[in-house]
Inverse folding.
């Protein structure tokens, strides 16, 4: 009798285990994934892209950002999905973004779901060149720059690009006066020799100037 009861309990335990396993499998919430696509995979840096995304929550707010292979990240368009969890957004590409492969990420603020799609960015031609006090300098030297064509009182983003493609922004804010800007840049001591460039970009008007210079050893 003891043996029969032992075998009986064993089968009951096995049966309960199977039921729990099946219950877990059948009751598991399905995994949802968002997906996105762009209207084309190549674009110029002054154009727009159309982003379409599906698989998000209904009527949720979304945010997007663009990231380059070099690590640059810029916020882009935001919006809200429709009742089916779909959304279409227009992505404005910055004129000063470096050429190469970029990714657009869309993030659902309620669901936390994300989708990523990529495109190749082609360089946009600048509107002109900055005036420069010297085209060849040694590390530690100071260069003076001048540019025109900006909006009066506009905030201007200014940064230097090293020979390896990495960029460093000027700490001091630059504002245009009468559409003109004047600023100086001191090449840090010990900087890499090679071809550098200085970029000035009007944050509201989009006016875009570049000037290359050489740093010698």
């Amino acid at each position: 009798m003891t043996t029969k009861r032992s075998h009986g309990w064993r089968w009951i335990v096995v049966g309960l285990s199977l039921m729990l396993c099946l219950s877990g499998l059948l009751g598991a919430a399905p995994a949802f994934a968002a997906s996105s696509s762009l209207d084309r995979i190549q674009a110029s840096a002054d154009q727009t892209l159309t982003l379409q995304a599906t698989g998000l929550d209904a009527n949720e707010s979304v945010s997007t950002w663009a990231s380059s292979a070099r690590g640059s990240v810029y916020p882009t368009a935001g919006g809200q999905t429709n009742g089916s969890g779909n959304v279409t957004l227009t992505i404005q590409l910055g004129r000063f973004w470096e050429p190469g492969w970029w990714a657009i990420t869309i993030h659902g603020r309620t669901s936390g779901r994300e989708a990523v799609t990529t495109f190749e960015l082609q360089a946009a031609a600048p509107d002109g060149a900055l005036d420069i006090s010297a085209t060849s300098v040694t590390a530690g030297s100071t260069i003076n720059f001048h540019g025109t064509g900006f909006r009066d009182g506009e905030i201007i983003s200014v940064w230097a690009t090293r020979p390896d493609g990495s960029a460093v922004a000027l700490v001091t804010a630059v504002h245009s006066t009468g559409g003109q800007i004047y600023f100086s840049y001191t090449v840090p001591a010990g900087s890499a020799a090679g071809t550098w460039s200085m970029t000035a970009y009007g944050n509201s008007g989009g006016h875009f100037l570049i000037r290359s210079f050489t740093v010698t050893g």
The helical segments are 2-27. Residues 2-27 form the longest helix (26 residues). The domain at 35-122 is CATH 2.60.40.1930 (Immunoglobulin-like). The CA atoms of residues 57 and 111 lie 6 Å apart.
